[in-house]
Amino acid sequence: MADTLQTGDPIANDMLFEWLLRRGDTALVLGHRVSEWCGHSPVLEEDIALANIALDLIGQARLWLSLAGEVEGKGRGENELAYLRDAWDFRNVLLAEQPNGDFGKTLMRQFLIDAYQVPLMEALKASKDSRIAAIAAKTAKEVAYHLDRSADLVIRLGDGTPESHGRMQEALDTLWSYTGEMFAGDAVDAAMAKAGLAPEPATLKPLWQETVDAVLSEATLTKPDSDFAHLGGVSGRHSEHLGHLLAEMQFLQRAYPGATW
To answer: Which H or E run contains 10?
Structure first.
């Protein structure tokens, strides 16, 4: 066991490293997914907005992965962790890696994650680790904007035309079973909570549920009546989609190892 940072509360470095990967990998994978819309969005304004959100997410990933590399202490930084790991080494939630589908599915995926990220970052601002708290303070401003935007668009499309309503309901039905993983804690989460570094995931669900219920109600969408949850992403068991995503994201570094501009 090692002393954590400024707190003196003991937590194994490998558990802290795992937890940081979960934050960084989820931001990185979601950021790449959103970036896939660049040049393909339905209108120019959305193309620019999605590109900016992708940049926010990748910026967040850099912060979390840089800290993860520092904690690991093996000389790996943000670039090595992003580009030189295989799919089974990634710790993102499964929801983040799901394919974009149509515009409605992309927005619904974003909203479901944004509604989780906002209370998470607010809680992390009180972390006993000043580095985690600092990242959360910066990230909280971005995710609050992301949630405002995604919630507004979910409402507008859900309560829009029969076509847009149907697509948003289909997206919700498809993605709902991936949301439970965000609140399924394990030994890593328990250790972080005990050390005062992060909240137990389950404690965030009421706030997430409150936001989701309010938005879905205004969007005239029906929340699926199922508690089934796909699990495994945060422990390295991913869908086939992540492998395809990494093949594209990591191609340049894999093809030309160590290349620099």
So the answer is: strand 10-11
What angle (nearest 5°) sits at the alpha carbon of residue 38, between those of residues 32 and 43?
135
Report how far residue 28's alpha carbon sits from residue 194's, in angstroms, rounded to the nearest whole number: 27
Amino acid at 191: A
pTM of the model: 0.94
Paired tokens of 142: 């971005």
Q: What is the structure's pLDDT at 43?
A: 86
Helix (H) or strand (E) holding 61: helix 44-72
236 φψ region: left (φ > 0), alpha (ψ -120 to 50), beta (else): left
- Beta-bridge partners for 212: none
Distances (CA, A) of 1 to 8, 10, 15, 248: 11, 6, 10, 38
User: What pLDDT, in 10s, does the model give residues 113-146?
Assistant: 999 999 999 999 999 999 999 999 999 999 999 9
The answer to whether 117 and 144 have CB atoms below 8 angstroms apart is: no
pLDDT in tens, 181-204: 999 999 999 999 999 999 999 999
Helix (H, G, I), strand (E, B) or coil at 92: coil
8 A C-beta contact, residue 133 and residue 127: yes
